[in-house]
Amino acid sequence: MAALGDSPTNIWLTPESLRVLAHPLRSRLLSQLRIGGPATATQLATALSTNTGATSYHLRKLESVGLVEDTGEGEGKRRLWRASTEAHSWYPSDFAGDEDSETALNWLSHDYARHFGEQYDKWLNVSMTWPAEWQDACGSSDSMVLVTSEQLREMRDEIHEVVARYRRVGQGNPRARRIAAYTFLYPLDLERPPATDSRS
């Protein structure tokens, strides 16, 4: 999840768009377009080690729910695709009681966790080749906080605001590099789920 609400940089998932996105190739296609910029189905197929026919089909499925779009700049039948926004968001409660959507969300959440692990491993494998100041600035940390659900939402929203403020602060600076900023918030006391309580 990223910035909250629909905006030029963010789209809010609906049950339909969630179910379309919850697919191994579609999830990777959207990520590739966001990271690599506009590309044809052939270029995407090469990058993701799949075939052009399947790639074109799944791009059209993503287009049908507004997650990707044709730039209109392709030549002939070679459509040039781009992600329609930089991010997408959701609340799990948006899909409560919809078994198909809940199943799709469970798969997608696990897929994102796996994807994070894969990408962070790639960084760790090459990190020693980067300048020391970049190694020092990157990294990971973990902390424990004792909060109510309301306080956790406030903390999460503040983190999102900080990330949004820095989203393009390095634009135009040749020393700037794109950095992935992941946020995972989850309970440590998994065996003690709280009762539903409006007092949070």
SSE layout and pairings?
Elements: E1 10-12, H1 15-21, H2 24-36, E2 39-40, H3 41-47, H4 52-64, E3 68-70, E4 80-83, E5 87-89, H5 99-126, H6 132-137, H7 149-166
Helix pairs in contact: 1-5, 2-4, 3-4
Keywords: DNA-binding, Transcription, Transcription regulation
Pfam family, one: HTH_20
Domain HTH arsR-type: 16-96
The SSE order reads: EHHEHHEEEHHH
Radius of gyration: 19 Å
**Structural class label:** mainly alpha
In spatial order, strands of the major sheet run 2-4-3
Q: Would you tell me the overall average pLDDT?
A: 92
Largest sheet: 3 strands, antiparallel
Mass-distribution shape: globular
Beta-strand proportion: 5-15%
Give the tally of β-strands.
Answer: 5
Low-confidence stretches: none
Helix content: 40-55%
What does this structure look like?
By secondary structure, the chain is mostly helical. 46% of the residues lie in helices and 8% in strands. It contains 7 helices and 5 strands; from the N terminus they run βααβααβββααα. Strands 2-4-3 form a 3-stranded antiparallel beta sheet. Strands 1-5 form a two-stranded parallel ribbon. Helix 1 packs across helix 5 (99-126) and helix 3 packs across helix 4 (52-64). The longest helix is centred in the middle third of the chain and has 28 residues, at 99-126.
